[in-house]
Amino acid sequence: MADLKLRFISALILGPLVLLIAWRGGEAFVALALLGCALFLKEWLAIVGAQAAGLPALAGFATLLAVAGLIYAGFEPWALAALAAGAGLSILSARGGKTGFWAAEGILYSSLALGALMLLRRGSDGELHIFFLLAVVWVTDVAAYFTGRKLGGPKLWPRVSPKKTWSGAIGGLIFGALGGLGVVSVLGQGGTFAWFVFGLAVSAVSQGGDLLESAIKRRFGVKDSGRLIPGHGGIMDRIDGLVAAAIFAVLFGLLFGGSLADPMSGIGFQ
């Protein structure tokens, strides 16, 4: 109960602030996304033992700054080039060792997430897409937690995350998609069934991102990614599902005809 109380207080403070910045968009949102992904990368590097190496961390943070600046300026293809260069430098700095590859994966993952969040917010219907994403991910997280504790049952992946259950995962899927649907309804969009199905997919990927972080922490014998947020652990513990879901949403948009400058422009659920 003490842990749950801390989680609630943290969410009550940080949630409205994130929503306000997401609503405003522009430079404030870019700064927030950059800060979140930089902290995400910092914790990733610490987990995989790359923080002390120096150069991988420097390459990673420089890559994030380059990606943010290039996308903000409208040079999206160059952002991809900067991302690849940063990951390559990380591998070279570790002379091909495992630490370098793990660090490079963190650079790729955090930089792709940063780019995805920026593209989702600034594109056509940016408010709809970013609030839809936040609603699905946040409701999924909360619903999975309470549904799993209430119903229990078979474990989802006990070797990686002993507390997660199939009941929690299914509850997160359903309620997460309904949460996204609520955002769509408030903002006056059509295509209810299509948005619900899309929400199910985003929720599933969000939970996959959570499991991915759990697998990495277990691989390196780490319980929490950090202690930045009371009751939640590190920033990586808090946004693991969001970064995975953002990347998926952009790839989905590109698959259905969106452009690199506005990946969701090809999606028109009616």
UniProtKB/TrEMBL annotation:
Pfam families: CTP_transf_1
One of the record's GO molecular function terms: phosphatidate cytidylyltransferase activity
UniProt topology in membrane: Multi-pass membrane protein
Compartment(s) where it occurs, according to its Swiss-Prot or TrEMBL record: Cell membrane
The enzyme's E.C. designation: 2.7.7.41
UniProt pathway: Phospholipid metabolism; CDP-diacylglycerol biosynthesis; CDP-diacylglycerol from sn-glycerol 3-phosphate: step 3/3; Lipid metabolism
Reaction it catalyzes: a 1,2-diacyl-sn-glycero-3-phosphate + CTP + H(+) = a CDP-1,2-diacyl-sn-glycerol + diphosphate
Bilayer-spanning residue ranges: 12-41, 53-72, 101-120, 126-146, 166-187, 242-261
Keyword tags: Cell membrane, Lipid biosynthesis, Lipid metabolism, Membrane, Nucleotidyltransferase, Phospholipid biosynthesis, Phospholipid metabolism, Transferase, Transmembrane, Transmembrane helix
Domain of life: Bacteria
Major site of localization recorded for this protein: membrane
The family this protein is said to belong to: Belongs to the CDS family.
PANTHER family: PHOSPHATIDATE CYTIDYLYLTRANSFERASE
Protein name as it appears in the record: Phosphatidate cytidylyltransferase
